[in-house]
Write a structure and sequence with these properties.
Layout (H helix, E strand, L loop, with lengths): L6 H17 L4 E10 L5 H8 L2 H4 L2 E8 L2 H10 L4 E5 L2 H8 L3 E6 L2 E2 L7 E5 H5 L12 E4 L5 H12 L8 E4 L3 H9 L5 E4 L1 H9 L3 E6 H4 L3 E2 L1 E6 H6 L1 H23 L5 H12 L8 H10 L12 H13 L9 H4 L9
Parallel strand pairs: 1-2, 1-3, 7-8
Antiparallel strand pairs: 3-12, 4-12, 5-11, 6-9, 6-10
Length: about 350
Amino acid sequence: MTIALNRRQTLLGMGAMGAAAALGTPALASSRNMAVLHLGSHAPSFIAWERGYFKDAGIDLNLRFFEAAQPMAVAIASGDADFGVTAMTGGLISLAQKDAVKVIGGALIEKPGSPGSLVLASNKAFEDGLTDPSQLAGRSFGITTAGSSFHFMAHKIAQANGVDLAEVDLRPLQKLGALVGALSTGQIDAWAIQPSIATKLLADGAAQQIGTVADCAPNYQVTTAFTSTGNAANEGELVTAFVAAYSRAIADYNAAFIDRTAPAEEVDELAAIVHKYVETDSPAEVAKENLINGAQRINEGLALAEDSIIEQLEWYKSEDMVDQSVTREQLLDTSYVETI
């Protein structure tokens, strides 16, 4: 899929990078922070930072690490971070209603036939008969928190398989590391997670695959790019420069790990960059293999699957996790990217 930058994005991005090149200093000089997670899905964040794409675009940007999606949204709202790329959450939607954050683009997306998130069962549960998502009733399913993307995925998996979500024992364990440990030791029966983590669990013999999220939720926009409402409304050059820089890294990532059109030395270089932040306790070759096997396409140009975002918004409303009055306009600013 090839998505062109819109006119505003292209012109402003070129202006920011051109000024930086001409002056030899960032066009947007004040220091900024980007909220990130130690996940392979954040590979473009690491690539853009390590390769200097943010500096090329005139942004003095630093990476700030978090353990879950919702605290990232809080950091954007409070001004502790300027940008984030992570999943939709009830917390993010509530902050958008308060005019604190805006979704400005899309990243990971689930599409049948493409690499994506896997539904996993613990070895214990698998041996006890949990071999298909249709058997989740009466079983425990791991999530980070109520209102998280994992909660929404549990809903989509249950819905697609004719299971009443009320019959699934949702276990909020707060952090990704806790979920990995709980599944590996049989403390929870099932979980759904991006392939960068799932493939490692499978390779280690710590879990069993029982399904895919794409089969249950086709065209699900898993992660989004977001910033503060103030940035979106008043810092157009900054936001456009960020989108342009991040888009360069997405192109590198897709070429190396999805389309496989990049030369071998480029793949090695990008894998080494990501290994600084992901699976740091694994040998470099193992981490590289897991990154390749667990890669998932990221929308070029941060294009946004708007219908999926609206579906998620309406589900959060239906579950009374967010106020019924939240509007599309409060949540989204689609002026910086294409919608698909």
